[in-house]
Amino acid sequence: MQQLLWRRTILTLLSLVMLTGMLAACSGKTEQAAEPGADTPAGEVPYPASLTYWAPIGNAGTVMKSFSEMGAYQELEKRTGTKVTFQHPPAGQEADQFNLMLASGKLPDVIEYTWGGVAKGPDQAIKEKRILRLNELIDQHAPNLKAVLEARPDLKKPVTTDEGNIYVFPFLRPDEELLTFMGPTIRKDWLDKLGLPVPATIEEWEKMLVAFRDGDPNGNGKKDEIPFLLRDINVAFVGAFGITDGFYREGDEIRYGPIQPEYKDYLTMLNRWYKEGLLDKDYATTDGKLQDAKMTSNVLGSLVTYNGSGVGRYTNLMKGSHPEFELVGAPYPAKILRQGRHDRRH
Question: For the whole model, what pTM was predicted?
Fold first, then answer.
């Protein structure tokens, strides 16, 4: 249910700072927080000596065993004096481990999870005293977050239940620029070698994929290039057909993408691309580790990935073995009209 992303790290840390004082009071631990002293102004809640923090490690698990290895968390520990012990479920077992943890009744101080989709919903989790209603705690201890939520009802609504409960410290994207954090990503050095621009239409994408297949862009004399990794492919191309792969709004009508005629056109294109060797043949078995292996072995030309855990991480991993390595984000392909014309508006 939850894929922890690098982009959430910093704001999660800020949330942790706000959460530490009030969570210590409800954790039931015998270890006491330090008494307010010279470093703790009167009326403020001191940081606890320790916290346990359960969270899926996600893509970060390919480069570290625990979030405790992250510089940002280490700096927070220095500033707060709070020792955080992270608990990470095994990759692929997050949902099962989450349910087992709830059933055991032995809960850590902080649980990072997609609570909106939890069984019976967050309201029931609050009634069962598994998590806290945060409304009053935010009012008392998080004035900055309170001010943002009051000023932006559109941000408050998604983290508030039908019963009026705020159940998470949210990750917010208040500006439009922050709404794009993943998308089609291409080997820029391969484009440069083949003299190709960053594609902006489906036709340009196909031309590029064919060139990646036939033009030996990795320069090893073999035809081992994988033009496009077939994971999260709907993110890249389905919008070019004027639909989504789920429910969406068209004027005053709610539609479902997979039953629209355009979806058949979309699948027909993917089928042809697959038969022509433009898509990764291992699409059914490729997980995060295999994706990493294909990228770091210099055979993968394009994929859908994230800013930090994709572009940033791969750039760092490849800088020693392939100094020419460069990734570039591509715009989502322009909309295809069913008559065959193109609407270049995005």
Answer: 0.67
